[in-house]
């Protein structure tokens, strides 16, 4: 589903250089979810942007659904993103001037999917959006906007979902609810999920965890039981 090979990225800022990614390899098959952990500034968002084709690596290849992103035209890349990818980023990028329902259905309509089906109803229920559907997105609270952004990202049942701290503004119960919907999409539709989170409990809900440090990915040791005190 997603394959990263030898990804390098260095940012240049005047005289100084910052090597953020120094040879990252990652394999994310269909039906699997991976949590990407790492200290603030370690390059998680950069890696996600590159994997999603929103930024180009200096070196290395990104393959999504068998297609090498660097070889796609802008048009084909845009089509791949619209049809097969779902993004939940820290900035919600909702469409002002439209209500919640129109925002939620935007990408489904671009893909000529019907407005209603069981999955859309489930998203509206699970993310508690039923009473908000006809409100303009501008008047929503941060947490409400985040829920709309999540529903919109998942509404067309993308095959590959990138989520960068998707539950930052939500309380614990709703965070777990969001994660459950993401995991269900992975389990039932055979999609794949790459999740950036600082939240350990949410990271434990994915199939595997990797940590970005020193520009490279390291397998995260599975948590060991507490030692028994004497
Ligand atoms: N466009 C850019 N130009 C220059 N430097 C950048 C750019 N984007 C990111 N950086 C730098 O690259 C490093 C990695 O940033 P990134 O946002 O990928 O980290 P992160 O692990 O996602 O951090 P956080 O957990 O705080 O969101 C940081 O030092 C950041 O300042």
Automatic annotation (TrEMBL):
GO molecular function (one): ATP hydrolysis activity
Q: Using the record, list the residue span of the signal peptide; answer none if the entry has no such feature.
A: none
Please name the PROSITE patterns in this protein's record: ABC_TRANSPORTER_1, ABC_TRANSPORTER_2
Using the record's annotation, list all stretches that form the ABC transporter domain: 2-230
User: Which Pfam families does the UniProt record give?
Assistant: ABC_tran
Supply the alphabetized keyword list: ATP-binding, Nucleotide-binding, Transport
InterPro entries the record matches: AAA+_ATPase, ABC_transporter-like_ATP-bd, ABC_transporter-like_CS, ABC_transpr_LolD-like, MacB-like_ATP-bd, P-loop_NTPase
Q: Which CDD domains match?
A: ABC_MJ0796_LolCDE_FtsE
Q: Which GO terms describe its cellular component?
A: plasma membrane
Protein's recorded name: ABC transporter ATP-binding protein
Q: Which organism is it from?
A: Elongatibacter sediminis
Q: Lineage of this protein's species?
A: Bacteria, Pseudomonadati, Pseudomonadota, Gammaproteobacteria, Chromatiales
């Amino acid at each position: 589903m997603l394959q990263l090979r030898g990804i390098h990225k260095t940012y240049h800022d005047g005289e100084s250089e910052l090597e953020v990614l120094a040879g990252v390899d990652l394999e994310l098959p269909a039906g699997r979810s991976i949590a990407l952990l790492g200290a603030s500034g370690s390059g998680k968002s950069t890696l996600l942007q590159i994997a999603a084709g929103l930024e180009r690596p200096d070196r290395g290849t990104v393959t999504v659904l068998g297609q090498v992103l660097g070889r796609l035209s802008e048009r084909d890349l845009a089509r791949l993103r619209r049809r097969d990818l779902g993004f939940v980023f820290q900035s919600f990028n909702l469409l002002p001037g439209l209500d919640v329902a129109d925002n939620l259905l935007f990408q489904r309509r671009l893909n000529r999917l019907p407005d209603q089906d069981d999955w859309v109803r489930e998203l509206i229920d699970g993310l508690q959006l039923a009473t908000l559907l006809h409100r303009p997105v501008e008047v929503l609270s941060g947490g409400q906007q985040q829920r709309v952004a999540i529903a919109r990202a998942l509404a067309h049942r993308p095959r590959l979902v990138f989520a960068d701290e998707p539950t930052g503004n939500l309380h614990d119960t709703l965070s777990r609810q969001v994660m459950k919907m993401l995991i269900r999409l992975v389990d039932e539709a055979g999609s794949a999920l790459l999740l950036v989170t600082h939240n350990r409990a949410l990271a434990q809900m994915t199939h595997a965890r990797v940590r970005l440090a020193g520009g490279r990915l390291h397998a995260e040791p599975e948590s060991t039981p507490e030692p028994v005190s004497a």
